[in-house]
Amino acid sequence: MCLPCCGLSRPERELANRLAFSRSRLRRGEHLYRIGDSFNSLYAVRNGFFKSVTPLDNGREQVTGFSMPGEVLGLDGIGPERHAFNCIALEDSEVCAIPFGGLQSLAFEIPSLQRHFYKMMSREITRGHGVMLQLGSMNAEERLAMFLLNLSRRFAARGYSESEFNLRMTREEIGSYLSLTLETVSRTFSKLQDERLICVQQKLIRILNKAGLEGVMGRQGN
Amino acid sequence: MCLPCCGLSRPERELANRLAFSRSRLRRGEHLYRIGDSFNSLYAVRNGFFKSVTPLDNGREQVTGFSMPGEVLGLDGIGPERHAFNCIALEDSEVCAIPFGGLQSLAFEIPSLQRHFYKMMSREITRGHGVMLQLGSMNAEERLAMFLLNLSRRFAARGYSESEFNLRMTREEIGSYLSLTLETVSRTFSKLQDERLICVQQKLIRILNKAGLEGVMGRQGN
DNA sequence: CGTTGCGTTGAATAAGGTCAAATAGAGTGG
DNA sequence: CCACTCTATTTGACCTTATTCAACGCAACG
C-alpha cells in the first residue's frame, strides 16, 4: 500500500481503495513533474530517490529537498494547482500516483483524511520553516551534521540502516540544498571524518558516532 | 470585514457571517499565542504589528516572520493543532479571532473556501521555502534589499505608502529574521543609504530608488 | 541629568567562497 | 584487460565577507 495511510482506520482504508493508483517508472535524470505543470496527483515514492529543485531569480537553481521511498511528493502543488518545484529522479525510480481529485472527494466523506492532509501540508510548512530557518544560524559543520542526521532518521523510519547509507546526490546538490559550495561540503565531510564522527567513502557514509554528530549541532552558538 | 474573504463570492460571505468573530487587543510585548498553545483560531491583524518567533535548538530564538494589518496569523497551528511559533505584538495591536472549528464546518459547505484554505496554507509553504531558501545564496546587502522591498510591497497592498514607512522591529529582530548580526544590519542600512537607494532615520525608512534596490537583488551571483 | 535601550562605527578575526590543480572512479571502446 | 575520457571529488592558496569585540552616540524617560 503506497498511500500515506497512517492517519486512516481500517474502514477508511477500504474506502481509499476506490482510488485508482497508477505506478510509473522514471529513469535517472527524468522529471516527475515540472514547475507550472498542472497539479493532478500526489506521488508516493516506491523506490529510488528524488530531488526537488527551484529556479532562483538570478537564473541559478536551488535544491529544496530530497525524497526517499515511503515519502510523499507533490504537496507543493495543492494550493496553486500547479507545481511549484521541478522534481527530478536521482536514480532509476518508481512512484505511485494518487489522483488528488479522488482524494479530495474522499476527504469529504472521511474527516480524518481531511485532517491528515492538513497535517501533511502543515508539516511541509514547519519543515520548510524549521530546517531552512536554522540554516542561517548554523556553520558548515553544523549544517552537514544536521543533513546527515536527518537522512539517517528518515532512512531508519523507512526500515533502512540508520548508520550506513549511500548518498544518491552529488556534493554539489548537497551544497545547493545547504547553501554551501561543493568545496565546503567536501572539506566538511573530511573534517567530520577527521573527528571520527563519520566515515566517508565516496557516496557511502557510515555514521560512527551519532551522539558526537548531535553534539556538533548542539554546540552551535552556545 | 476582517476575514481573508478574497476567495469568497457574495452568498458565501453571508454564510461566513454565521461565524462569531471576536476582537482582542494586545499591548506591545504581549503574546498572541505561544508555542504549544492549543490551536483554536486564526487571527486577522486589524492594526499593529507582530513577530513570529521560534526557539532554536541551542536555546536562542529566531524571528520567523512579521505580520501587518490585513494579514492572517496562526496558520502554523492547523496541522498539529498546536501553535508552532510564539507570536508577539511589536506594538499595541488589535486582532480579530476567527474560530477555526466553525471555519472548517463552513468549508464543508463551501468548496471554494476549502480551496482558499489550501491556497493560504500552500502560500505559507511557498513563502517559507521561497524566502528562506534564497537567503542562503544572498549577501547582507541583497538580504536587506529583499526585506525592504518585501515590506514595501506588503505595505502597498494594504493601502499604506510603499516608499516611506516605519520599521516596528529592532535591528536585532531584522538580523534574526535575515540571519545577520545587528551590526551587519546597521552597516548595511548605512551602505544602502550611501548608495542613495534609501534614506534611514532611525526606524523611518524612505525608499529613494526602488529600481536600484531591485537591482541590488538582481545582481546577485550574476 | 543619569540611566537604559538601541543604533552606529571601527579594528581584528574567522569562516566560507573562489580559483586552480591534483586525484579518483566509472564507463567506454579498442 | 588496458588506455582514455568524463565527471565527481578532494585539497591548497588566497581573498572577500560577515562576525566579534569594543567604543561611542543618541533619544526617551524617570
Write structural notes for this entry.
The structure is a homodimer of 222-residue chains. Chain A is of the alpha+beta class. Chain A folds into two domains: 10-133, Jelly Rolls (Sandwich), CATH 2.60.120.10; 137-218, Orthogonal Bundle (Arc Repressor Mutant, subunit A), CATH 1.10.10.10. Chain A has seven helices and eleven strands. In chain A, the strands form three sheets. A four-stranded antiparallel β-sheet of chain A has the order 1-8-3-6. In chain A, strands 2-7-4-5 form a four-stranded antiparallel β-sheet. In chain A, strands 9-11-10 form a three-stranded antiparallel β-sheet. In chain A, strand 10 and strand 11 form a beta hairpin. In chain A, helix 4 crosses helix 7 (210-218). Chain A is globular and about 55 Å long. The A-B interface holds A 54, 56-58, 60, 62, 64, 75-76, 78-80, 84, 108, 118-126, 128-130, 132-137, 178-179, 217-222 and B 54, 56-60, 62, 64, 75-76, 78-80, 84, 108, 118-126, 128-130, 132-137, 178-179, 217-218, 220-222. The first copy, chain A, binds a DNA duplex (30 and 30 nucleotides) through helix 6.
Give me the secondary-structure topology.
2 copies of one chain form a homodimer.
Chain A: H1 10-16, E1 22-26, E2 31-33, E3 41-47, E4 50-55, E5 61-67, E6 72-73, E7 86-89, E8 93-99, H2 100-109, H3 111-136, H4 140-157, E9 164-166, H5 171-178, H6 182-194, E10 198-201, E11 204-207, H7 210-218
Helix pairs in contact in A: 2-3, 4-6, 4-7, 5-6
Chain A binds a DNA duplex (30 and 30 nucleotides) through helix 6.
